[in-house]
Write a structure and sequence with these properties.
This protein is 55% helix and 10% strand. It contains 19 helices and nine strands. The two termini are 28 Å apart. β7 and β8 form a beta hairpin. The strands form three sheets. Strands 2-1-3-4-5 form a five-stranded parallel sheet, sandwiched between helices. The chain has a two-stranded antiparallel sheet with strand order 6-9. It has a two-stranded antiparallel ribbon with strand order 7-8. α9 crosses α11, α11 crosses α17 and α13 packs across α14. The structure holds fe (ii) ion (2 copies).
């Protein structure tokens, strides 16, 4: 996009909120919509594309780390319309003296948003007859509530599902196997659709006691689906993984200590840690299915949930630096020694949990070992690393390559090139060859 083109910058950490807001905006904003999941991503877009017509940002991102992003906007685009979105009832008076033009409740309020955006922007608004919705959203949110259409050409749509009839997994798989990612509803029903979606998301995000599996899924399922498509993994495996993750959490939660630990750890919705663990749960689970190791799926999910139970959330932004220092065995500073031993501590706790299947503690213990023998805590050589731990390590490497997920295609390509060099021995080679074989 050139610097002069109209665009709107939309910022939120949660994939589902971003997706809902983007869909809502598409229905009444005529310019380009650029997404950012973090402050850094937003700043990168602003520097690359110039000033947008308007910024819609999550309130917390504006004011995290002593208001760094708000300060940046104050210095660089002080007169830009800025809409903040929030899921909290009140904000402190100290934050009243800000650039914010309006504060809207999250996930989205289509009427107010459309009114505000239209009053601030000039981009022409097209009036489509039909608007797109993602297949997964059609199944999870809108099934049975709307007529669904398939786009045949520019203005030609054909009805495929009637209101009142469920949009099933089988239909979703049939369409996605043909490379179709979206179906359509009538534009006249778009407000009702957004209302239903918002309600659904609101219940999943903000209801007290909402289950852990949905907290994890809501963070990352969209990304998991995109990765799966790129790797040529089956749609069935992605669907099945949701059930397996749910069951693994239910099994672990039967142990009272574990139930408390997990709840405490994942109550911070939208955190980097929840995003990391969510991705690991789904990716390890789907990788197992692709390797025909269905019996190991639950073990990998459990290990994903527990592997960093004793790492504080604040470590996550710098986790690669911690890992690098922990691999340097000459570094004996107390905090690095403690970090180096976190796999051991987590595996010791795992051993005390009677309901845990075998191997889970081994995966946890070895999750920072490395095929070149330079991992920690024990520096095991590739041939001594457990087969299931090898899958875990490779999935975690992949998650690190994905970073914040904004350049997915490039990240996956880089991972495959890097992996060809790294995974040359032990179980790693066999697993990697299996993964690579399916990539088209
Ligand atoms: Fe991790
Ligand atoms: Fe770890």
């Amino acid at each position: 996009m050139s610097k002069t083109q109209n665009y709107l910058l939309l910022i939120d950490r949660e994939e589902n909120v971003l997706e809902l807001q983007e869909t809502a905006l598409k229905y009444f904003y005529g310019g380009e919509i650029v997404l950012a999941r973090t402050r850094d991503e937003a700043v990168k877009s602003l520097e690359k594309l110039g000033k947008p017509e308007i910024i819609i940002s999550d309130f917390k991102i504006l004011f995290e780390e002593k208001g760094k992003f708000h300060q940046y906007l104050k210095e660089n685009c002080p007169h830009l319309p800025l809409i903040a979105t929030t899921d909290e009832e009140k904000h402190s008076p100290a934050q009243e003296n800000t650039l914010i033009s309006s504060l809207l409740p999250k996930p989205v309020c289509p009427e107010e948003l459309s009114h505000l955006v239209k009053s601030f922007t000039k981009a022409p608004i097209e009036s489509p007859t039909h608007v797109p919705i993602k297949l997964r959203v059609a199944r999870d949110v809108a099934s049975g509530k709307f007529d669904f259409y398939l786009k045949l050409s520019g203005t030609n749509f054909v009805k495929i599902t009637n209101k009142g009839n469920d949009f099933t997994d089988a239909e979703l798989l049939k369409l996605s196997s043909k490379g179709i990612t979206e179906i359509f509803i009538k534009a006249s029903e778009s407000h009702e659709f957004l209302r239903v979606w918002e309600q659904h998301l609101h219940e999943r995000l903000f209801t007290k006691g909402s289950s852990l599996d949905s907290a994890l899924a809501i963070q990352c399922l969209e990304q998991v689906e995109r990765i799966s498509r790129a790797f040529g993994w089956s749609g069935e495996a992605v669907l099945a993984s949701q059930k397996i993750v749910k069951e693994a959490i239910a099994t672990l939660s039967r142990n009272e200590t574990m139930s408390l630990l997990l709840k405490k750890k994942y109550e911070e919705r939208g955190s980097a840690y929840t995003q990391h663990v969510g991705l690991l749960c789904y990716l390890t689970c789907i990788m197992c299915a692709e390797l025909k190791l269905e019996e190991a799926q639950e073990k990998l999910v459990m290990a994903s949930l527990m592997h960093d139970l004793f790492i504080d959330e604040s470590f996550y932004p710098e986790i690669e630096e911690w890992n690098k220092q922990a691999r340097d065995f000459d570094n004996r500073s107390p905090e690095i020694v403690k970090y180096r031993l976190h796999p051991l501590h987590a595996s010791q706790i795992a051993q005390t949990i009677d309901i845990l299947p075998p191997d889970v503690d081994q995966i946890i213990l070895q999750h920072h070992e490395s095929p070149d023998g330079r991992g920690f805590p024990r520096g095991l050589s590739a041939s001594r690393i457990h087969y299931l731990a090898s899958i875990f390590i490779m999935a975690e490497d992949l998650v690190h390559f994905l970073d914040d997920g904004h350049a997915l295609e490039t990240s996956l390509k880089d991972y495959l090139t890097w992996g060809a060099d790294r995974y040359q021995s032990g179980n790693f080679k066999k697993i990697f060859d299996g993964i690579r074989a399916k990539v088209s």
